[in-house]
Structure formats: structure tokens, C-alpha cells
Amino acid sequence: MRKSNKKAQLEPPMLVSAEQAANVFPAVRYFQIHFEFLQEQIQLILRNQEVLQQQMQQLESQLSRSAQGLRLNSKTLSPIERLTANRNATQDSETANLNLTGGR
């Protein structure tokens, strides 16, 4: 047995014709289909990532406005600061509403 192992190690690799290899390995179309599938999955992931980034920006904006509202209600602000902050918050919400209507 030991001699056969040595003999197998010394023999050159087996050469196979292209026709025989084609029968053993999948066709090129097989790889093309899977590659196209992976490309579609990547595009889907990128689109989902963009949507999630937009949602994160909206959430951050809402949290920022909520934090402004909390600061407005706190007793540490002077009456002038509250008035100025209320005025700015009102202007921001009116601008957002104008943008959402699209000129209707």
C-alpha cells in the first residue's frame, strides 16, 4: 500500500479533453444566471440602504424638533428665548407644509 501512495504522488495530473470537462462541469450559463441573481440582490440591498438612510434622517429631524419642544417647555429659558424659539419652530413647520403640498 505504501508503494501505491508514492506512485500516485509521482504521477502527473490526469489530462482531460474539453468535451469530457464540459460533461463534468456546469455550463457557463449556470454561472451567468447566478451572477445576475447576485447583482440583483446587491441592487436590492443598496435600494433598501438608501430608504433606511432617508428614514434615519427623518427620525433625527423629528427627534431634533422634539428636543426643541422640550427645551421650550423647560423653565430654564427666559421668556424672550421661549418666544424666539416658538417663532422659529412655527416658521420651520410652515415651511415644511409648503414644501409637502407641492404648490397645490
How would you describe this protein?
The protein has 104 residues and is an all-alpha fold. The protein has a domain at 73-99. It has helices at 2-10, 18-24, 28-73, 79-101. Helix 3 (28-73) packs antiparallel against helix 4. The longest helix has 46 residues, at 28-73. The N and C termini lie far apart (89 Å). Residues 94-104 have low confidence and may be disordered.
Topology, number of strands: 0
Helix content, binned percent:
over 70%
Which consecutive residue ranges, at least 5 long each, have pLDDT under 50?
94-104
Largest sheet: none
- What count of helical segments does DSSP give? 4
Question: What's the mean pLDDT score?
Answer: 74
**How would you sum up the global shape?**
rod-shaped
Strand content: under 5%
List the helices and strands in order: HHHH
| N- and C-termini, Cα separation | 89 Å
Structural class: mainly alpha
Radius of gyration: 34 Å
What does the secondary structure layout of this molecule look like, with pairings?
Blueprint: H1 2-10, H2 18-24, H3 28-73, H4 79-101
Helix pairs in contact: 3-4
